[in-house]
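Subgroup meeting minutes
Present: P.N., E.W., G.H.
Scribe: E.W.

1. P.N. recapped why we're keeping a running log of single-chain structure predictions: easier to compare across weeks, and new members can see raw inputs and outputs side by side.
2. G.H. added today's entry (257 aa).
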Amino acid sequence: MSHISYSELKNWSECTWRHKLLYVDKIEVGQGTEHTCYGTAVHETVENMLLGKISDLYPYFNKIFTEELEKIGISEDTELASQMREQVIGTFEKVVPTLDEYFEDKNGWSVVTTEEPLYESVNLESSGDYKFKGFIDLVIKDGNGHFHVIDWKTCSWGWDARKKSDILYARQLVLYKHYYAQKYDINPRAISTHFGLLKRTAKKKRIELFRVTSGERKTKNSLDFLQKALYNITNKRHLKNKLSCRWCPFKDTEHCS
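Output recorded in log:
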């Protein structure tokens, strides 16, 4: 393996044995669910809307949603899929007004890029030629010239305070910021990080943006964690974490009995 992504790092942090099964042994698991298809379709619709590429938002969403469901063999007429098509209505029109309000005191905003690819040298001790791989959902620049890295998350009603402060989620944005700054030689202090929640069932505040701190200390801790992961992966240290079995796709299978 020559690269590592945030999703791989997250899997490693939850269970290094599961990481081995997925990324070393390359054992295939389920392709996805209605939820993953919904998330893909929402992300792609928001991306193309912000780039001014589409105007018929819901026909476009439904097209992508159907295509994603077909890829994994799920009928587009399941009860959940039908509910999702109804629940998404009213979401996309709120994206730009929410961004306007959120960045109002920063003299507005403009899109720099969407789906920004990252494939940057890890540049850590003993990391060899590893690259950090990822895609940033949205980068904008405010009227003061400050950059903002935003990662969209689809969810049901929202996130509670515990999830919003979870270091495992925050680490994604911290690493995205670090390697985006490295890619374009930008002072990290000129970049802020945010999650954007695109809520499916919430009655109010269908879209919520909130800032995630990503200063020097949190960046150092995240890079130290990345280095620790790469060291153990390279040295083939794979241990089972039985506290992470509940939602594991390998639970009670021959791969992890």
